[in-house]
Amino acid sequence: MAENEDGSEKTESASSKKLQDARNKGNIPRSKDLSTALLLIVAAVTLYGTGTLLVRDLVILFDFNFLVDRADLFDLNRMVFHLYESVVAMMDSMVLLMSVLAVAGVIGSIALGGLNFSWEPLTPKLSKMNPIAGLKRMFSVQSLVELLKSIAKVSLVTLISVLVVLHFLPETIGLTFQNIELAMEHGIDIIIWSFIFVTLALVFIAAIDVPFQVWSHKEKLKMTKQEVKDEFKQQEGDPLVRGRIRQLQRQAAMSRMMSDVPEADVIITNPTHFSVALKYDQVSGEAPVLLAKGGDFIALKIREVGNHYDIPVIQSPALARAVYHHTEIGEEIPQGLFKVVAQLLAYVYQLRNARTGAPMPDVMPNLDVPDEFQWDGN
């Protein structure tokens, strides 16, 4: 199990932040064996598909270079031209092969870990020049694992190569009894199949190396429990500071809510535990909006502000509880409460008009709250 420099065990998986930081520094899983295997597979498939073209170009090249006039041998300009023609003769097959290999090389390098660019690995570091640190890396467990992997890879490739040579040895000897064109075609076919068999050995190695590199990368980035806590504090902030921020936010929200109370048309109370302040815009005709709500001390403050601004304060425990528990500040009241709130507002407007000489309203209407909005205290 991985350990930190202070001896604490790294038991926790790397956080998304640490993974992203590592990626920004160029620390991502890579597999050289995967890149090599993919490159050789593409090369083998390309050679297999273009074998006929390659044989044709080789025959043309051999004919052209074995049939040289004696006079051309003593003419430097003619020999330079001869070399140029030889290069052109092989251009078709070689350009195709090299282009495909270039693309395969790029894809193979980013197949594991994806495309990533960082200047961090190129930044000079004094720690890399420390001979003691260098010796530690040379004799580390990671170096031992890499050495064993290299020995295993060389042994496997050597074994496969020997088996391939022994398998094609009779056919290789038989090439001497064939005409030149047939021998070349048959010889290239042997080379291609030998190449394919050796490449399959590298595919087997890559299939083991890729999961190992992914696992090794995750192990290196593992974190201790303390590192997880420290990172959380850095991202979220100190708990005391967060608590103070939340307190200030609640105070600011409370201040904003209280500043809206003077605009209310009516305040409905429990009368002691809950208070809600409603506003109705008669011009827009939309549903009444909850401007403020609160319980206990806040309910008392809402009533005090209402009394200060001469806003009607109506006691209706059932309606106060219904609005309090089913409506958020700034939202319209639920449709199921439209009727009972409309009755209350009509009564309030009658009270307001009575101040200007209009007749006083009769007793307050019976505010029946629908059963689905009744609150039983649970």
List the main descriptive attributes of the protein structure presented here.
cell membrane; cilium; 14 helices; 2 domains; 4 strands; four-stranded mixed β-sheet; mainly alpha; Flagellar biosynthetic protein FlhB; transmembrane helix; 5% strand; name from scop
Write the layout of secondary structure elements.
Blueprint: H1 16-24, H2 32-49, H3 51-66, H4 70-73, H5 76-89, H6 91-110, H7 131-138, H8 141-174, H9 180-220, H10 225-236, H11 239-260, E1 266-269, E2 274-279, E3 289-295, H12 297-308, E4 313-315, H13 317-326, H14 338-354
Parallel strand pairs: 1-4
Antiparallel strand pairs: 1-2, 2-3
Organism: Marinomonas posidonica (strain CECT 7376 / NCIMB 14433 / IVIA-Po-181)
Transmembrane segments: 34-55, 94-119, 147-170, 190-215
Subcellular location: Cell membrane
Q: Brief overview, please?
A:
The chain has 378 residues and is mainly α. It has helices at residues 16-24, 32-49, 51-66, 70-73, 76-89, 91-110, 131-138, 141-174, 180-220, 225-236, 239-260, 297-308, 317-326, 338-354, and strands at 266-269, 274-279, 289-295, 313-315.
Q: Mind explaining what this structure looks like?
A:
The structure is a single chain. By secondary structure, this protein is mainly alpha-helical. It folds into 2 domains: about 15-120 and about 150-220, no CATH class; about 260-375, name from scop, CATH 3.40.1690. About 65% of the residues lie in helices and about 5% in strands. α2 runs antiparallel to α6 (about 90-110) and α3 packs across α9 (about 180-220). The longest helix has about 40 residues, at about 180-220. The model has no long low-confidence stretch (mean pLDDT about 80). It comes from Marinomonas posidonica (strain CECT 7376 / NCIMB 14433 / IVIA-Po-181).
